[in-house]
# Entry
Amino acid sequence: MRGVERRKTRTVTVGGVPIGSGHPVVVQSMLKRRPDDVEGALADTARLAEEGCRLVRVAVPDEAALGPLGEFCRRSPLPVIADIHYDHRLAIGAVEAGVAKVRLNPGNLRERERVREVAAACRERGIPVRVGGNSGSIKRRDGTDDRSTAEALVDEVLAYCGMLEEFGVGDIIVSVKASDAATNAVVYREVARRSDYPLHLGLTATGPRDEGAMKSSVALGALLLEGIGDTVRVSLTADPLDEVRLTKDILRACGLLDDRPEVVSCPTCGRCEVGLAELSRMVEEVRAALAGRPGGLRVAVMGCVVNGPGEAAECDAGVAFGKGKAALFKGGRVVRVLPASEAVGALLQLLQEP
Amino acid sequence: MRGVERRKTRTVTVGGVPIGSGHPVVVQSMLKRRPDDVEGALADTARLAEEGCRLVRVAVPDEAALGPLGEFCRRSPLPVIADIHYDHRLAIGAVEAGVAKVRLNPGNLRERERVREVAAACRERGIPVRVGGNSGSIKRRDGTDDRSTAEALVDEVLAYCGMLEEFGVGDIIVSVKASDAATNAVVYREVARRSDYPLHLGLTATGPRDEGAMKSSVALGALLLEGIGDTVRVSLTADPLDEVRLTKDILRACGLLDDRPEVVSCPTCGRCEVGLAELSRMVEEVRAALAGRPGGLRVAVMGCVVNGPGEAAECDAGVAFGKGKAALFKGGRVVRVLPASEAVGALLQLLQEP
# Structure
């Protein structure tokens, strides 16, 4: 009883990393510093890579950044994406410096002849483009309400993609970030419906760490559960490592990343023969015993017989407690009934078996 | 650019608290102890009420619980919901003890004549019923795959509602909890499509605190953003207060609860004229200054000019930093450009104005 059916997209490859519905959702992040600080940028990128990040983006704010960007690209352990605003010459310079993808903002770099020049540079080197629209930088239509602002964002982004296609660039990834979860869901769904571009999910201007994490979880989780989203960058006013950890947590919660065992447990209630403290302790014991094990394993620790056996049976293994006793489950069947005090030990032993 | 359009439902009133699309989403929780421990249950309920919880559920595991349940109902600061499994006599006893709603599980209390007796007791006292289906306690059909298990859960729950309606009970709230976000979304959407019952959202057997919180945020957020869900109970293997706090955080992230000012901020990047540490400090300063203020206020603290002015303009007030300077926004317009070091002070002053 799980599994998300991904929306079908074309595949766009960024520095050897394929992005699209035929491939796992790609985790990415963005540096908080300029590429001029090459050693700092490389150190940050190495930490991000170790945490599971697969692509790194960096702002290219001016021409002074282009030289160092070349060195950063050559030495970076991850493919580098250039974040470009306003100035098309920076995009062309970044492509020449060796970036693996260019992010353009249709809200501030839209002059047709300039986009044609950027497209030519990208086409020549086979560099994909992210068309990164953003509710904060869209050209506002006067006197419009919220609904039409959202529509304007989608229209603007898709028209921009059309222009790139006209200029021979079909390797396009799209984002349409808004700063609230409800609008974000609406605009992404609309782009998903109207195109087959892989989608870069994000929410803009989320806020401080905790609130930002919650807004991002809700906003991006909603889309991912619908099969929408091929690469994710969470934005937090916090360490980029936090962004990567949160992204992976969201993907796990959506069933899109299964890189470690999952422990499910009940909240406990007045029916439980074991209390909250005791059940929590057993859950932690099971979790600790499974640390370092690969994904593909789901273990239940349930406090009573109402949902316990059902949940435990849906898992690879589990225990459900009754009056002084516990049922041990494996592969959907009760394999033993034993005294409650022996349950976790027996479960851990069972999980050691091949 | 925000706002969720709720799915239209009938309204069901639980102990004076109306539940349905015409009313704010209701936060509820469940005690971890038996009602026999009346003083403990009352103390827990008082803490939950203070945290913003509006309904409290308690397990009624056996007849011994019924006497104390009566006292608990009389003294509880919140309407009490009885959680019933297996034994219809406990449901009838709970209604007589004075509960404001009865939760029945179609997976383990489905004998027609018994349900008729419960319905008669509820009808007589005007007590609504939650039909609480659960993937862990559904009657499994042999040899079925995941998809048909989900369908079976929805069919079972709606058939049960039909039976209650036949017995004269129309005050029905429905839940169909699964233990993974993807399945949960599918089953709730299906019930939403096929009925006008107010929905009680939850995810079952979520797991330990952090993973459980993430799974719940994703699973419930996805539905809430679609306008599905009229009351929420998050289940965590943790303190019930954590459940209530998380529920309120999810509702805020979905734009369904606006009980305090919202601060939006950017993640910072190489374009920023202010660093992450500095921006974080300013965000905290603004947050602290707004503590205790009511909702309906959205304030932006943005590090650069790319999305900054756009986001700041979408907010009631905000600042966006440029080279050594900052633009101060109010009601969508720049009201001042001032030295960066004076920006937060000016913003806070502006927020003091009526």
In short: Chain B touches chain A through 92 residues (CB under 8 Å). The mean pLDDT of chain B is 92.
